[in-house]
Amino acid sequence: xxxxxxxxxxxxxxxxxxxxxxxxxRGRPRDPRLDPAILQASEQQLxxxxxxxxxxxxxxxxxxxxxxxxxxxxxDKNTLVxxxxxxxxxxxxxxxxxxxxxxxxxxxxxxxxxxxxxxSMALLGTxxxxxxxxxxxxxxxRERLARPRRQxxxxxxxxGIAAGELADDLDLDVAVNMLIGCFYARHVSHGTIPxxxxxxxxxxxxxxx
Length: 209
What we know:
By secondary structure, this protein is mainly α. It has two domains: 31-86, Arc Repressor Mutant, subunit A (Orthogonal Bundle); 100-138 and 149-205, no CATH class. Helix content is 61%, strand content 0%. Helix 1 packs antiparallel against helix 2 (56-63), helix 4 (77-86) runs parallel beside helix 7 and helix 5 (100-115) runs antiparallel to helix 7. It is elongated and about 60 Å long.
């Protein structure tokens, strides 16, 4: 896509290319509809072709844009895939407020809500498949999504211990893995996760008073 160029006879300085060091804001404005199209095309390419065979050219063609336009948003393929990983969280983690059990319930419901995003499990499978070749992708998933969620749940369980609602000797690491892991296990074994799964899972560890 070529930048707009004003008439040279007007005495005004020429408009600069996007990404240059010249004045910004004079070029053709970005089409906001293109950003989700790029992420959707990138995710599909990553799932279907894998990281190695995914290219900026193939993503641009699938998104209906050009490689220069793509590079104005994402400098390389790795940056683009990182944006796809970040898009897996469609609902932010809830603020840590309220009684401990309510906090734990909110974290699990938030997790289940994010798993409803189309192809979330399939994309995680792709990241696992790419771990040996591109470990930084799964590291990004852990850093941006898994670790914050696990920490929020761990904090809620620790608050439950402090409040006398859970056993003092509860193994927090095991408890967190049980609660989060059961969502993945349910999906693998049945292909679906019931709407009330968050409540049912927590009640096994932390019965409702």
